[in-house]
Amino acid sequence: MDHRPGLDPSVAEVRRAVRATLDTTDGSVVVALSGGADSLALAAATAFEATRRGIHAEAVVIDHGLQEGSDAIAADAAAKAVSFGLAARVVRVEVGAVDGPEAAARTARYDGLARGAADVGADTVLLGHTLDDQAETVLLGLARGSGGLSLAGMPAERRDATGPRWVRPLLGIRRRTTVAACRAEGLDPWSDPHNVDPAYARVRVRERVMPVLESELGPGVAEALARTAEQLREDAEAFQDMIDETIEDIVEHAEAGISISVAALAANPAALRNRIVRYVVESEFGVALTRSQTLEVARLAVDWRGQGPIDLPSCVARRVGARVEVVARAGD
């Protein structure tokens, strides 16, 4: 516990969260630093806690090149990290045009952070997402009808098949706490104009929707949404365990794709059956099915009336005897 005289409670809260992460971390760590209040408070706490544990920590600043003067903004963020004891580097990334600007920037950012971690030799990347970010993610998923996995929000920790371990130490901390921590430590966060641009759905949720919910329903809405995400993530993990156990017995390789046993697919409850369909297609072809596409594929097993092949992104699903085949589309 942090009880030293003069230590601001907000600083202590952020440091405790980082300490809990570093206590389960082996080797070097990288802090994703944008220069905003959340990542700046995270970087300062990491510098303090890592030094005490003899852990090498380095800040990686991603320059997306999307704004005039982005190189100067990135350099300033790196300089702030150096001022409180972190090594720092700037990684310039190229943002593509696929899947919209937000998704493309996110993909480029994570790729850049993974490269930065590899350069440092770090196995762990710390991300500055807060409880408010989690609540916004849940609301966006709800509005888009994205299903339970989307409503489960961001995981506190995940590891890619290849690449670093991604950890969000501040996922239980409010944004106002990171702002207060920066103020208490005399840090001057950068205000990204994109964070107040109503062209972005997340900004509209943050600036318009959440204040109305808090006003009309009372305080604690963000915490309730974050709890919902945590509970749904537990459900999603349980379903994934079931899928992993089931899939080896019911899925086989087919020419140019895969096939699933009709009898086994139909025997599963709808929630598990639909997840199996989505998981199999995404794993094999790297595409995410919509709800309606998923149900159409499932009907090949549970409501077979001789319907023809179903066109899906990059692939085709069809009934072949006692199996549902999902194969690459001819010419792709």
From TrEMBL:
GO molecular function: ATP binding; tRNA(Ile)-lysidine synthase activity
Subcellular location: Cytoplasm
GO BP annotations, alphabetical order: tRNA modification
Binding, ATP: 34-39
Coiled-coil ranges per UniProt: 222-249
Keywords noted in UniProt: ATP-binding, Coiled coil, Cytoplasm, Ligase, Nucleotide-binding, tRNA processing
Domain of life of the organism encoding this protein: Bacteria
One GO CC term, this protein: cytoplasm
Domain tRNA(Ile)-lysidine synthase substrate-binding: 261-320
Domain notes for this protein: The N-terminal region contains the highly conserved SGGXDS motif, predicted to be a P-loop motif involved in ATP binding.
Function: Ligates lysine onto the cytidine present at position 34 of the AUA codon-specific tRNA(Ile) that contains the anticodon CAU, in an ATP-dependent manner. Cytidine is converted to lysidine, thus changing the amino acid specificity of the tRNA from methionine to isoleucine.
Protein name listed in UniProt: tRNA(Ile)-lysidine synthase
UniProt organism field: Microbacterium proteolyticum
